[in-house]
Amino acid sequence: PRGLLVIYGAASGPAPAVEPSLLAQSGSLFLTRPSLAHYTLTRQELDWRASEVYAAIQQGKLHLRVERRYPLVDVAHAHRELEARRTTGKGLLIP
Asked: What is the pLDDT of residue 41?
């Protein structure tokens, strides 16, 4: 009861339709599909949210997982890896 399902991203394609009445019948469940654009409508809001993220990284509360590093000359290889879904975490292109 009172669960929350967040659909974040769509790498596998669009999610199937959900009948709202089933959410109520199953225990007042919530479904949301957030979009970054709606949370950064103005430059001021973007700066505010970005500063929160950077502060969390600096304080050690948020850890970024850099899974792979690619030399910039290997950018085509990096794109093939992404397209083939062989990556997880962050991939960095190093100049």
From this structure: 95
Greatest alpha-carbon span in the chain: 54
Check the CA dihedral 4-6-12-17 and report its sign: positive
Handedness of CA 82, 86, 87, 92 (dihedral sign): negative
Task: Tell me the pTM.
Answer: 0.57
Q: How far is CA 78 from the centre of its chain?
A: 19
The answer for residues whose C-beta is within 8 angstroms of residue 6's C-beta and 6 or more apart is: 32, 33, 34
3-state secondary structure 9-43: CCCCCCCCCCCHHHHHHCCCCEEECCCHHHHCCCH
Which pairing describes strands 66-71 and 30-32: parallel, antiparallel, or unpaired?
Answer: unpaired
What residue ranges of the chain have pLDDT lower than 70? none
> Which residues are CB-neighbours of 4 under 8 A, at least 6 positions away?
29, 30, 31, 32
